[in-house]
Amino acid sequence: MMIAQELGIYVVESKGGAILCLLLSLLCLGTWPALMALLERRGRLPQHTYLDYSITNFLAAIFIAFVFGGIGESTHEAPSFITQFTQIQDNWPSVLFAMAGGVGLSTTVNYFLDNGLNRADILFSGVGCFLVAVCLGSAVHSSNSADIKAKLGKLSGDCETVTPEECQRLFGVEEEEEEKEMENVKEGSAAFLIALENKRAIKVLGKSMVVGLGITFFAGLSFSLFSPLFNLATNDQWHTLKQGVPKLIVYTAFFYFSLSCFVIAVALNISFLYKPVLDSPRSSFREYLSDWNGRGWALAAGLLCGFGNGLQFMGGQAAGYAASDAVQALPLVSTFWGIYLFGEYRRSSTRTYALLVGMLVMFTVAVGLLMASAGERETRFT
User: Fold this and answer.
1) MF terms per GO, please (predicted)?
2) At the N or C end, where does the chain have fewer CB atoms within 10 A?
3) Residues whose CB is less than 8 angstroms from the CB of residue 367 and which lie 6 or more positions away in sequence, other chains included
4) pLDDT tens digit string along 188-201?
């Protein structure tokens, strides 16, 4: 069986079941950023969106913990989520690993933490393809930025000196006509880009990429180690637990992981309401509560992310967390939604299209290789 019930706890048993979990996770984790981007492009403040997202993301973790973690019979060797959450078991080192964040190279770290569970030759070939895809992705961004500059170049000759006000004046796009303008102009055209800039919550035209790249780099470093830390939380490779203390089941670790994310996200975004960054408008908690524009999409994004993370950890526990890092190829899905929903890369240069195809091909190969490297972890319940 792909998924079996052991004493009230559902566990993924087979390589096939693990791969299915990872594919579903990839779909979920590649879709929720597109929904967030959709709302930002429609003018909804990111702080409002992320607060909604954080609520359902945590609710998804609670659902997974109770439904799959079991609330029934429990033993010392196979404790349920309720048992580990409500009883003192001296497992705080593992809990802290689950809640912690950090920096590192997750796939390589996971391979060694799992004691070579995954096939190294296939795994690291996939990592190589992953790195090539990332480099191609950077080239796609650079080429697309050059295309945008070329489209707007007739306004000033240098897009970096063009302010949104100048663009609006020169193109004749009035703020009250933004909706009509977005519908009438061709996607990817200069007029479309200006109309989009007037509407979106975070203005990007004429802004330096340094800040954005810095935020992205920091986020990537923080994001890269949550999987190895989760691995340590559930498998205790560093032997931080006292003898006889059961390891955290994947659902208990996921609950604490999501709890940490929820607390940090709510604290940060409430502070950003009153002290916004990136020139976003100032807001308040009362304004957030009354903002129902797009709230359903934001709540859906949180659910997708929560279930996507849960599926990734379920698959990783069964087949190796190094293989589960295949879901980090989420640009495969996000790019599809970007093209389909937002008209991204429309009317771009041949060079951009060639780089884009190369990036998607390399991500596809990387996902295939990482999943093909999957092993089968021995269950602790036997």
Assistant:
1) allantoin:proton symporter activity; ATP binding; uracil:monoatomic cation symporter activity
2) C
3) 26, 126, 326, 329, 332
4) 677 777 777 778 88
